[in-house]
Design a protein that fits this description.
heterotrimer; A alpha/beta; B mainly alpha; C mainly alpha; A: 10 helices; B: 9 helices; elongated
Chain lengths: 304, 277, 312
């Protein structure tokens, strides 16, 4: 359903995302994990045509026959909120402080052809669907009267209003309390159609997604079914990530990946991870291709 | 101080520098005596020793502009000085005791004074004590106090919630000491920027006052009064309005650009703090 | 909200009263006795005393203040010591003129600033937007009276198209009335427009960076549509607050512009009053101007709260 090929994102001459390719089948839940600076947010934003000023995307991304990249705003805006929608990381600033909640939810529907009155009715239904108590009251409220968790649910309601084929979530629970996080994740797991879930939290992605893509340095370094990738990681970066997130027995040191993520533009040539990888050799100076069906990895010296 | 040189700072600095230069040089030398009335030279065209010509009394325009720069700077310095010296402590007090009755009082009085524009104060003061440079300076100064007080208060409020202030208070430092050693140096940059902006406003106010006849008395040259004198001859000798007008505009532009440039140079984040907030 | 209104109204009333005291006290500082001035140097002490009694200036200052302020509250501004004509009608005659001048100037300023400022913000990265920004910097460096003189030079002297001064009441000749106000409106409006442009640009720029604009686009709006529907209302809040400030500045600018164009407004009245040492007249006019500023501030404060639900 969603097919991305060779997606590259640039800011001036700096390459931030390099030749990313993946696909999402209808109804499939795919996670995109990586640290800050891995390019995961930019990948998602380029699918919506919402890249910030000065940042451009090239390559192809098609969904249901529609091109998403390299398409003028006038075409793209018809797809946003209708066929593909997004929930962002920061709920506190995502809503217009001067508009009532109900109107903001209704807006996404009226923009795509739903008559006003019908949109308002549906808005109430949606608020209920995302498990907000007293939907009528909430609809009349202003954003500053709601908590972060509530606002994020509203964002989810807006995203789902027109029943899109794909829902993109960019760290939707990172800014929320742990208890609220759990509820939110359950909700997303329940209501989402096809899902592209972006996060840096391995536990979170494991609870929601079936398949996962691991990104580092603007590239996909490993991909595959979650169970497999998490129990038998092949790429050394994934291996390091998993080791660092596992609870270790007393008395042993917490395993870490040596070094730190380089700033954009300062990643090594060849394998993008080689300056931090304990298994790197001269071979790694050539870029490894993503190999393997199902469970793929881009590494000359994969684990096990 | 961090930051890079920028266009505003450069251009503003040059313009202000020109004004200061003109004023400074005028103490030692001007092409002619600007107050010397010479009927023979009446309305003389530019040329000869008269770079910009002479006015209807035969006074040399160029010399008048130079000496006028003195008035302009003089008024600006005193007015901004008054405003800063009175307004800053008031604003700091209001900022350091935000919920106190003193702070409320200060801000209410502040708003009241704000309602008396500089021109009005100067006219009133002029009516009582007679118009002149001194009354103009004091009136403009007093009218500018609210701007300084507001800016000082807003900046102080921002500084008070920082950790090092909390640390100082936890260490038992008394308020006045905290004010002098911690708050003042940190709000300094905002105040400098405000000073530059207020200087520009003071120049405009003085020009307006002189234009109305409430500013500098003759024979001391003043750009505003030169403009007023030029009005009746606008049809025949428009150049009489051109030079003082240009001088005023460039001086004001200079101080405004300098203020903006200083703001960008000292700390771009300061753009938030304004007198209107 | 109602509680706030009441409180704010109380502040308005209190401020006006305090302003009244300040103005009165100030004018009381004026050297010279109005009665002596009116009768001249050769007046007998008895005549002076009698005139004082008639003026009411023999009473203690506090009594005089309450008498004056009380009179103000129902429109009685007293009678001039100098011209012996009632002050109230003089003020009300000219109030309309000044009000029209100021409001027209404000309108011109808005018409210039809103489109230009928005344009400058949307195009802040390209040379055109930067040019507008630079132009506005130049605009604020020009005092209103200088703009007035420049405009007179261009339109009245060179082009001979518009009058260089004078005022025609609307009831006499509407066309001439309009013509006589055109240049004054422009003088006020162009300068204020430059100031306002910078504020509009800054407000729109701030809004452009807000997340909720991105949300709007994610819903399916184009960038222009998002700015229109969501951005402008949010941007108008800081602009409205500045508008209030600007109105007060305009009021004062009008004083000067009235001089340039010889328009019989409040400013003109004030300056004449000061020149003629007409104490009571000056008191009255200053009071009206200050009260107007305080009222404008009140309206702006309330409007600000009405526009922004977060403040209620």
């Amino acid at each position: 359903m969603l097919r991305v090929e060779g997606l590259t994102v640039r800011a001036d001459s700096l390459e931030l995302v390099h030749e990313v390719s993946f696909a999402i089948a209808p109804g499939e839940r795919v996670g995109l994990i990586g640290e800050s600076g891995s390019g995961k947010s930019l990948t998602a934003l380029s699918l919506m045509g919402l890249l910030p000023e000065g940042v451009t995307a090239s390559g192809t991304a098609t969904m249901g026959g529609n091109d998403l990249v390299g398409v003028p705003e006038s075409r793209l805006k018809r797809l946003r909120g209708q066929d593909v929608s997004m929930v962002f990381q920061e709920p506190m600033t995502a809503l217009n402080p001067l508009m009532r909640i109900g109107a903001q939810v209704a807006e996404v529907m009226t923009l795509h052809g739903t008559p006003r009155a019908r949109a308002r009715e549906k808005a109430l239904d949606l608020l209920e669907r995302v498990r907000l108590p007293e939907p009528a009251q909430i609809a009349r409220a202003y954003p500053h009267q709601l908590s972060g968790g509530q606002r994020q649910r509203v964002m989810l309601a807006i995203a789902l209003a027109n029943e899109p084929s794909l829902l993109i979530c960019d760290e939707p629970t990172t800014a929320l309390d742990v208890t609220v996080q759990k509820q939110m994740l359950e909700l997303i797991a329940e209501v989402a159609p096809a899902l592209l879930f972006i996060t840096h939290d391995l536990a979170v992605v494991a609870s929601v997604c079936e398949r996962v893509l691991v990104m580092y340095g603007g590239r996909v370094v490993e991909s595959g079914p979650i169970r497999e990738v998490f129990t038998r990681p092949r790429h050394r970066y994934t291996e390091g990530l998993l080791a660092a997130s596992r609870l270790t027995p007393r008395g042993t040191r917490l395993p870490t990946i040596k070094g730190s993520v380089p700033p954009a533009g300062q990643f090594p040539g060849g394998c993008v991870f080689r300056n931090r990888c304990p298994h790197a050799t001269a071979e790694c100076e050539t870029v490894p291709a993503l190999t393997g069906d199902g469970h793929a990895h881009a590494c000359w010296h994969p684990a096990d | 101080m961090r930051g890079r040189m920028n266009a505003g700072l450069l251009v503003g600095g040059v313009l202000v520098g020109l004004v200061v230069l003109a004023a400074a040089v005028s103490f030692f030398w001007t092409p002619h005596d600007p107050t010397l009335v010479d009927a023979a030279r009446k309305l003389r065209q530019p040329g000869g020793g008269y770079l910009l010509g002479a006015d209807k009394f035969g006074r040399d325009t160029f010399s008048q502009i130079m000496v006028g720069a003195r008035t302009t700077l003089y008024v600006g310095i005193v007015a901004v000085g008054i405003a800063a010296v009175i307004g800053t402590p008031l604003g700091m007090i209001a900022g350091m005791t935000p919920r106190g009755w003193l702070s409320e009082l200060i801000m209410r009085v502040n708003d009241l004074v704000f309602a008396f524009p500089a021109l009005l104060l100067a006219v009133m003061l002029g009516a009582v004590y007679g118009p002149g440079t001194l009354t103009a300076m004091i009136a403009i100064g007093v009218a500018t106090v609210p701007a300084f007080a507001r800016v000082a208060r807003a900046a102080t409020l921002q500084v008070m919630v920082t950790d090092y202030i909390l640390a100082a208070r936890a260490a038992g430092r008394r308020r006045p000491a905290i004010a002098m050693r911690h708050v003042l140096p940190n709000i300094g940059s905002v105040l400098i920027v405000q000073a530059s902006v207020s200087f520009a406003i003071a120049i405009l106010a003085e020009a307006a006052l002189s234009f109305l006849g409430f500013g500098t008395r003759p024979p001391t040259p003043s750009w505003g009064r030169m403009l007023q004198e030029s009005q009746e001859l606008l049809f025949s000798t428009p150049r009489l309005a051109l030079w003082p007008g240009l001088a005023i505009a460039l001086a004001v532009l200079g101080f405004n650009l300098l203020g903006d440039g200083l703001r960008d140079y000292l700390d771009p984040k300061l753009r938030r703090v304004r007198a209107e907030s | 909200m109602t509680l706030y209104l009441v409180k704010r109204l109380a502040v308005l009333v209190a401020s006006t009263a305090v302003a009244g005291v300040a103005v009165f006290a100030f004018m009381a500082l004026l050297p010279g006795d109005p009665a002596e001035v009116a009768l001249g140097v050769n007046a007998t002490p008895d005549a002076v005393a009698a005139l004082r009694k008639q003026f009411g200036t023999d009473r203690p200052p506090v009594v005089q203040f309450f008498d004056w302020f009380g009179g103000l509250l129902h429109g009685d501004f007293g009678t001039s010591y100098v011209t012996s004509s009632p002050i109230g009608p003089q003020i009300s005659d000219r109030l309309g003129v000044t009000a029209v001048l100021v409001l027209g100037g404000m309108l011109v300023a808005l018409v210039i600033a809103v489109p230009l400022g928005t344009f400058a913000a949307v195009h802040h990265r390209n040379p055109l937007g930067a040019a507008i920004s630079a132009l506005s910097q130049v605009g604020i460096a020009i005092p209103a009276f200088l703009a007035g003189i420049l405009l007179v030079f261009v339109f009245a002297v060179q082009a001979q198209a518009l009058p260089s001064g004078g005022y025609v009441p609307i009831v006499e000749d509407p066309a001439q009335w309009l013509l006589s106000l055109l240049l004054p409106w422009l003088s006020l409006g162009l300068v204020q427009g430059a100031v306002l442009t910078r504020y509009v640009r800054s407000a729109v720029l701030d809004v452009m960076r807000e997340d909720y604009l991105r949300t709007a686009r994610a819903k399916g709006r184009g960038s222009t549509g998002a700015l229109w529907r969501h951005g402008l209302r949010n941007a108008s809040i800081p602009v409205v607050t500045v508008l209030g400030l600007q109105l007060a500045t305009l009021l004062i600018g009008a004083v000067v512009v009235e001089r340039v164009f010889v328009i019989p407004g409040l400013g003109d009245l004030l300056l004449n009053g000061v020149a003629g040492r007409d104490l009571l007249l000056v008191q009255g006019v200053v009071m009206v101007l200050v009260a107007a500023v305080l009222l404008i501030n009140f309206v702006v404060d309330v409007a600000y709260r009405v526009l922004d639900p977060r403040l209620r």
